[in-house]
Amino acid sequence: MTATRVLVLNSGSSSVKYQLLDMRDSSRLASGLVERIGEQSSRLKHTPLATGGPAREWTGAIADHDAALKAVAAELAQDGLGLDSPELAAVGHRVVHGGKHFTAPTVIDDTVLAEIERLIPVAPLHNPANLTGIRTARALRPDLPQVAVFDTAFHTTMPESAARYAIDVETADAHRVRRYGFHGTSHAYVSRATAKLLGRAPEEVNVIVLHLGNGASASAVRGGRCVDTSMGLTPLEGLVMGTRSGDTDPAVIFHLARVGGMSIDEIDTLLNKKSGLVGLCGDNDMREIRRRIDEGDARAKLAFDIYIHRLKKYIGAYYAVLGRVDAVAFTAGVGENAAEVRAAAVAGLETLGLAVDGGLNAVRGDEPRLISPADARVAVAVVPTDEELEIATQTYALVGRY
To answer: How much of the chain is helix, strand and coil, in % rounded to 5?
Structure first.
């Protein structure tokens, strides 16, 4: 029997998201989430998509990731999809930071684990959790290929002129300070899906991808290769996000330390967790912000305007970087669902060939679609992202070569 299933794991510090896919037709057999790991009120929600049965939910104490993955395995086994199945080809792990070294999906061994661990200083919130998930999965199925798919890998094609910061080269190299970019699996998937929507090969298309969720990033993709992206050393740089500031004068940090008496940890928390939309108006849910705007709330309106101003600047900047743009693609939670954001982001850019059709923009759907007028010089698209499918596809393609 040929093994065609891939289990995708996305391990957070206190959570595990998972999907089981059959790569013969990219169908989803099961999906779920374990959250609040380490607490008495841990929760597991499992959806058996293959059987079409109702979702199952369980609440109780799940001590650690080992217990969490064993609980996931038990749920899958209940549907006849257990981790001991000979049809399981591999486990694909989302790993946030791969640095310069990892430019493609990689079969995990002890050397790879050590390198991911060495990158913890540049991804202190994410890589430790990713490592925990990998180690637990390897212990449960030591015979099974485990593959790391890196958020940063898609962006390793950036030229040095885009990837380097203008600081002392020796200092930067000694401490791995450069622009890595994130959301790479989403940008890779969406850029290819946009080309398909246009009926063209990815190598023929230049796309600006706007991944707009609670975390948000933009990328300039030329012929299927990333040439610039908005996030940098960490996911803090770039667009205004739900709780992150995005681009900020670095001297703000010195000012807050010297004049505000704030510690490095306090400034870190401020910029990562108390800034962005939530810092500007107290909300990071775009639906709530739009509701408040409709009621005349000035703070919500200012937050929205700042968000759009930054977004529009990046569209213009990446138009200049690419020289020719065939499409602008909106994706992720806000990008796929907030018509007002899409309309505002391209408003006033008609001389660049960008416009949206009001009727098309208002339509909601789960399939990739164009929202620009039929005669638009640049296509504007809504392309739902599918990071789990991208991870599974890259994992299965790699395992098939071994």
So the answer is: 40, 20, 40
